[in-house]
Amino acid sequence: MAASTVSYVLSGKRSISSATRDRVQEAVRVLGYRPNASARALASNRSNVIALVIPLRAGMHVPVLMQFATAVVTTARRFDHDVLLLTADEGRSGLERVSQSALVDALVVMDVELHDERVPLLRELPMPSVLIGIPADTEGLTCIDLDFFAAAEQCVDHLADLGHHEIALLGTPSAVYERQTGFAARTVAGFQAAAERRGIAGIETPCESTFEAVLETVGDLLREHPGITGVVIQNEPIIGPLLDVLRRLGRRVPEDMSLMAICADDVAVRQVPQLSSVTLPADEIGQQAVETLIAKLDSDLGPGVTLMPAQLTARASTSTAP
Amino acid sequence: MAASTVSYVLSGKRSISSATRDRVQEAVRVLGYRPNASARALASNRSNVIALVIPLRAGMHVPVLMQFATAVVTTARRFDHDVLLLTADEGRSGLERVSQSALVDALVVMDVELHDERVPLLRELPMPSVLIGIPADTEGLTCIDLDFFAAAEQCVDHLADLGHHEIALLGTPSAVYERQTGFAARTVAGFQAAAERRGIAGIETPCESTFEAVLETVGDLLREHPGITGVVIQNEPIIGPLLDVLRRLGRRVPEDMSLMAICADDVAVRQVPQLSSVTLPADEIGQQAVETLIAKLDSDLGPGVTLMPAQLTARASTSTAP
DNA sequence: TTCGGTAGTTGAAGCGCTTCGACAAGGACC
DNA sequence: GGTCCTTGTCGAAGCGCTTCAACTACCGAA
User: Fold this and answer.
1) Is the domain B148-280 a CATH 3.40.50.2300 member?
2) Residue A100 pLDDT more than 70?
3) pLDDT over 70 at B58, yes or no
């Protein structure tokens, strides 16, 4: 019984008689044999590990990140890969390190900015990568994200259909806009485009993720634009505070004020009243990212941008304009 | 110039003349040379990767987990190690896989239950590990956690010192108790012990992490125990809802009701009013875990339990009993 | 019957490092 | 001047796999 035979049984890369295969598998089982990962990686030039670069920056909503990360790990395991966790604060050098040392076979990069310094590097690296988020120039890249432009449009359309003609977008913390994060910019663009198309007034404002900030931002907003009857909210952690603030201000949802959220479904459903929302499908995006990466690994799949379609669910937080 | 010489320059394991060293370093710089991680691991029997097992279970508060994870990754990088992310749903087999294939050198396991099925396995594995959390039998293990018993005691003492004699512990979701998670059990024990010692009434109840659950739980609590004037809260995500519920019920904080939280400092400070709290030092625990692990890696450090001391900070949410 | 082809198996080469033992050169000591 | 030790460098072995080329055995077609 040659070592190579065992290798072929385990990898299935050559035909093996069923007798031999059974014998090998039995021995593997009995001895509890596990191939050494480093030796395997050295010989095959594949580590079966992918890197996941997670942002740790101001304004990012942690539970959503974790949802992405979980989806990535779970899907990677389905394809017999493991996940190496990198934090974005290592920046370019972290990516260079893990790819040039062949620690990983491929990269998943989250929280991509419009003009991300890592993008040129990703183009050069001799290793497939998938971005979660869309930079300004996607030439030669593989990117996946929710279609935030369409998401915002759908929110506006839904409110416009209900007869609202002055609505607001309560956005992400200003830090997120300042670093030109793609998803935030695309949401604003979609919001403005749809408002214009529908001939209604659309006011957008950033909002920090604290109760006081919501209190102040919403207070200012309603003072300056008393005609607002609909709000689109993109910043998940302020959903609770916003509902609270509206209650304090005596505005009932949805009677006086309609609310649309762009957030995970379970978050929307957990509120009182349940929120009409466009789903942020973090699970599917993470899963899709890994599946694409695996495809690129063993078939030189070309680059391309995948926008997950936005899907709106009307619930109890929106109604016809007062 | 022998390959071995380069290796010795890079690792510093033998003395090298400064002339040679400079020449090698210059060449490394110019060529952008990076040692191949797999080859290095195969030859040296060290992958320089540690596994981090993260729970994805009901009732766990995600931002805190992320804080642990971040601290672990950052600290690991300080010691020139990387982090492989495992989810707890792979259970024992995940641990066996990564350790037996020598994918990693060591393990950090989070969210340990009192009778965790992974504990016996960890004792057997030929590889150091550190648990974040304390199981029932710590024989032969290295564990680190906040001293939740003392944390609860300090909360009770603080309230008792202020003259309260009927207080409640608003705990974690019941799922966390049911699976006998150590930190929750130790908090309850400390709460009860201190209440008894101080001769005051201590009522403890689990609480799910939704607004309605808080509304109902607190409603029931105050109906059955109308004399309660102080609450200790261990469940971070319900801090906001709790403040809201008390407001609705017309109980002012701290005039009518004193509040103590066991949570991260920044969370306590972000509330209105700012909460008196015992800090949950996730950063330090994560950091300490990795430092201990590194020490075990290259010096056969013995096992042992490290309880991080609890530290109480009085803020605006506690005052003398009404 | 002979020949080409296919399926099954094998030994050997080699992946890119680390580490061990050997060895040369030089300094200290008697 | 010879011996011993230290310091710096090197070649070779080997880590545990994968993969290639080669070989055997056997089958069907000519």
Assistant:
1) yes
2) yes
3) no
